[in-house]
Amino acid sequence: PDGSIEGPFDFGPRPDAIIDATLLISSLNFAYTDFESGERFETDYLGRTWADAEALYARIHQAHLGDTPIFDGGFLASVSRPELGLIFEGSIEIPMLDERVRILNEIGAVLVERYDGCFHNLVRSCEPAAYADGNGLLERLTSEFPRFNDVSDHHGRTVVFNKLGQLCLWSLHVALSGTGTFAVSDLDHLTAFPDYILPVALEAMGILEYTDDLSYRIAGQELIDRDSDEEIEIRSHTIYATALLTDAINAIRPVDRQVVIPQVDFRLWSTYHAAFPTLRPHHLTRTTMY
């Protein structure tokens, strides 16, 4: 399995367009369930209904084909709440719309100031790696754009997640490595992408186990606070468990058919995201990081 962020939406053959789409989607890839009603964000497009992240992709694809300059830093720097609400029109107002406007305004301003308004100029100025003495794409994303700096403080210790930044690198690798345009050189340094669905998968498989109290709170859709012990531990154990699972899988696979953690992540995510509406609820945290 791969996990290209484009999914079924074709942004054309030009690598720059794929980079722009991937970076924009990565910037906004969070919070698709209304925190009050529990309703999912959905939209109708190309003859079917899309939900959650795929609904976001669909609306971006539709805006792009409709000649909205959705990838342009100048447009992003000035986009307003009404404008973005119209772009992401769906079954409900997309959750955390105000935060999405703020994120795009901040990102757009940096793109205009440093990269001639283009995501692809940013990517081409970095080493195609997570880490490269400060010049890896993940390092640059997290240092130049606060929205990608996904860290938490756990009793005085900094815990680094960087979910969206890592997913961005993996998505670019999947989409472009076959073309020779972009290939991540240190895939073995990527972790799982700790979100809402992966913990559901790991718990359903009996790999993760919640306390009775936490299970009750999740089942009741009680908000789990951002940076609380519970939220940090859910995400941390998700990363660790997926790493152990990957090691166990590779122990029984031929040497020439080893997998990396993002591949296992995608297999779990794709399977349990499809099943999750009828399986069990995921934890709810009001955050822009996943």
From TrEMBL:
Keywords carried by this UniProt record: Hydrolase
Molecular function in Gene Ontology: hydrolase activity
Record's keyword annotation contains Secreted: no
BP GO terms, sorted: tRNA modification
Coiled coil: none
Catalysed conversion reaction: queuosine 5'-phosphate + H2O = queuine + D-ribose 5-phosphate
Keyword Hydrolase listed: yes
InterPro entries: Q_salvage
Family of this protein: Belongs to the QNG1 protein family.
Protein name stated in the entry: Queuosine 5'-phosphate N-glycosylase/hydrolase
Organism lineage string: unclassified sequences, metagenomes, ecological metagenomes
